Amino acid sequence: MAKTLSDIKQALDLHLGQRLTLKANGGRRKTVERSGVLTETYPSVFIVELDQEENSLERVSYSYADVLTETVELKFF
To answer: Which top-level group of life is the source organism from (predicted)?
Structure first.
């Protein structure tokens, strides 16, 4: 995606309100795939509202460092 945390935040600001699919490291060699809508960006984290049919959680948050280190991969529709 981008090379710095501020670049990642600016790129995500442009995608506010859009649907996305995210792949996240779930620990112990697990990969979690979820889909939802990017709802908010803050100075150090962003929030994704998840689809209720697929997930038990309503919202998840990740840091921009997770995207930078490729712990979380985002794909916008």
So the answer is: Bacteria
